[in-house]
Amino acid sequence: MNLDLQSSQTTRYLQVYDYYKELILSKKLPENSKMPSIRRCSEQLGLSRTTIETAYLCLAADGYIISRPQSGYYVTNRASRNKSTSAPLISHTPKPALAYDFTSGNVDAEAFDFNLWRRYIKSALRQDKRLLSYGESQGEYELREVIAEYVMNKRNAICRPENIIIGAGSQALLNILCPLIKERNKVCFHDSKFKQGMVIFEDYGFEITTDQENADILYMTPSHMTSLGDVMSVEKRLSLLKESLAHNRLIIEDDYNNEFRYFSKPRPCLQGLSGGENVIYLSTFSKLLLPSIRLSFMILPDSLLPLYEKKKHLYNQTASKAEQLALCQFLRDGHLDGQIRKLKRLYTNKAQCLANELKNAFGNEASISMGESVFLVHLILKSELTNQELQEKLKAAGIHVFASPKQTKGHAHIALSCSEVPITEYPKAVALLKSTIKKCCPAATLCKNQSS
Fold first, then answer.
1. pTM (predicted TM-score)
2. Collapsed DSSP state (helix, strand, coil) of residue 445
3. Order of strands across the sheet that contains 402-403
4. How far is CA 382 from the centre of its chain?
5. What integer pLDDT is reported at residue 450 of this predicted model?
6. Segments of the chain scoring below 70 in pLDDT
7. Reduced 3-state DSSP string for 241-258
8. Domains identified in the chain and CATH numbers
């Protein structure tokens, strides 16, 4: 409310009372904040000290303020008490605490050499003159040079530094991409769980469809086709490219998880197989380094470059310039290959330890196997529950696992990522997993002929 001292509807001390009462209840005067002194308030409002003192005494009598000797008046917690007592009582079913998250994308504490990265960050921060200016909207050119060399050598991509755009995560890059392909209407996401990508396209007016045949754009993750890390074969990649070209479909290839394979080398990317045309390539360093290092990149085909060149000066660079400089030197010094080898050793060891714990716990009652992805361990058992039903039962018990998208009648197939949960927690986690499965699937036994 506004303090209207010209109003004759109420006495002035009540107007002052109501004014401060509303400030306190709305928490504009927060708990423990000091009220203006009687003298100061009198001067500010142009009222007598007696009027102000009477209003303060009324506020104190109703519990909104309290007098502290030799100090003044202070706001009490009356606003919080009012809120808690007046709020309607709503019954909520408490969500179970998630004790073990075997679906997390977070990394193990030992997965990254923080001291090494600090040295590169400190080196970047010593480039005073460069840090006085904004970063290039497309990304620092020398980093784009290094990335171009990396993707050509490691991913069989075809590009020049001019084709590469750097940003802080895939959403930032999709915000640049969507206006460039706005003449297309329908986009089909192979992974329907990628809500963060879908919302960007929806915001730009694209129609999200599950019908690949009638889509103008295909958003594909060929190196991680399902939650279980299935990889698209080269034969299927070539077939997809041929069909997309015939029907004028644009492909967005999100290659965020291509390095971590057990039994095969990374397959050539769609972008390289297409000759660099009709495919937009996305990837990130968050999986290889740290999730908090938000450095991703996009490779535009030459056909879209003129459209981007017209607008790129309007886009601010979302990735930290210092982190770009640090990553550039990190890559130049050859640390990325060492980081990939380190991660493979770490997660291979963790996955094997997790598989051993599961084998010790279940024995011949379940089929345990390592997945194609170095992060995943698969568990298959006879069950009347579907994969999703078993997943929900385990989640209610505090264990989050992946459910296989492929359902086999009479069997449940789940997978566990070894990424975040420490090895020391595996015995307790597996014990809880087994006890929960025994409760909801008492007849669970091995199906020897099932494969992951």
1. 0.70
2. coil
3. 367-370, 376-382, 411-417, 402-403
4. 34
5. 43
6. 1-10, 81-98, 226-227, 229, 257-266, 372-374, 442-452
7. HHHHHHCCCEEEEECCCC
8. 12-86 (1.10.10.10), 136-316 (3.40.640.10), 339-440 (3.90.1150.10)
